[in-house]
Model the fold of this input.
Amino acid sequence: MTISLEDIKRDLRVTHDDDDALLEVLLDAAVDEALQYLDLDDLPTVADSSSSEKIAPSLYAAVFLLVRAKYDAATPAEIVQLRQCAETLMAPYRINLGA
Done:
């Protein structure tokens, strides 16, 4: 399962299509950033009630926060806060932390 543009637009409450190309780039960048932070090739998944796989909810939320930090944050302090929240959500899934 992947995070779709429609998911991001719903989270940001964007109802127009004017920023779709930008949001796609920001979504790709946020997923890439999450994967680099986690040192993984794919976002971890969990089984849902229908036994299908979905992205772990906290990682789903973390990607949303990273997109929001790039698209919707009003101040540098808000960017930092959103990114710190995303890192907190991703931290339990991080691997290869070193010594």
